[in-house]
Amino acid sequence: MTIAGLAIPSAHKAALLWVAATALFVAGCGEQRLSDAELTFSTRAIAVDPSRALIALPPGSPPAISVTQRSYDNAISQTISLATRGRTPGENTIQVAFFTAADLPDSAGVEGNLLKLPGIDDFSVAQDMEERLPGVAMAPSAVFVQNRYGPFGYAFGRGAGGEACLYAWQRIADGDSVFRPKSGAVSVRLRICDPKATEAALLRLAYDYSLNASLRRSGWGPIGDAPAPAPELGKAGAPIYPLPQVSDPEPAAPRRVVRPRPARASQTEADRAHDSQPIPDRPLEGYPTVPPPPAP
């Protein structure tokens, strides 16, 4: 073997071939090594710590088990999974989304990585309840209710085994129109079933939840400013009385049970004959004679 007119012994020839083969092998191994940057996912949803949930429930509520978050061009949404017990199909969740002040799409679903603002009409709410509470007869409430963020709606029903189920929905927006909010919007959907809870206990979750985050964007403020305190607050001569508390009614006194007296047995012929016998006017034989009392 000659390189540039130089003759190379056979031993050196074998060494050069071994070095070339080793270099090719190392190069091939390097091409097979993968990095995290090369991995792509089919979904943009990521898991975040429950402490980063956009919604915080009041003390005593079911704990958050996991939080799945997804980012859009116009919103950030989360599915907060809560502890679930009972036999009703589905899991307890909170669906929440923070929308920017950009124009919101009208088409259903997601197009161009844009999230549609969920509807609050009867048809849209009925579809959501059927999806999250399949087979459960839910009755929407006609009572006006509101929490610190404004009015909300809810429906109540009985799931498997008669356990209490509640579905609540709310749209928070502060702008010229709730359908085209110029300051952004927040959409909240709460689904929860509990075999040991009452309607009032589940409704407390919708009353007392709080937003745990905000968007640092110019003009974003769907909640609006907090209302100013009453003008008479703190002034002398303007007493403020607490709301009257309705005390529990006193328990009714136990009713006295009047038991019927046993019927008196009818008088027999022997009793009537004994009663009709005249009183004797002389002492009876065999009985001691009792002397009369002394004269006064």
Summarize this structure briefly.
The chain is an alpha+beta fold and 296 residues long.
**Largest sheet entry:** 9 strands, antiparallel
Count of distinct strands: 15
| Regions with little confidence, pLDDT below 50 for 5+ residues | 244-249
Secondary structure tally, helices: 4
Proportion of residues in helical segments: 10-25%
**Fraction of residues in β-strands:** 15-25%
Q: Which structural class best describes the helix and strand composition?
A: alpha+beta
Notes on the structure:
By secondary structure, the chain is α+β, with helices and mostly antiparallel strands. It has a domain at 47-211. The protein is 17% helix and 25% strand. It has helices at residues 10-32, 122-132, 199-208, 269-275; strands at residues 2-3, 6-7, 46-48, 55-56, 64-71, 75-82, 93-99, 110-111, 114-115, 138-140, 145-147, 150-158, 164-173, 185-194, 210-211. The strands form four sheets. Strands 3, 5, 6, 7, 10, 11, 12, 13 and 14 form a nine-stranded antiparallel beta sheet that branches. β11 and β12 (150-158) form a beta hairpin. The protein is elongated and about 165 Å long. It starts with a strand and ends in a 21-residue tail after the last helix. The relative contact order is 0.11.
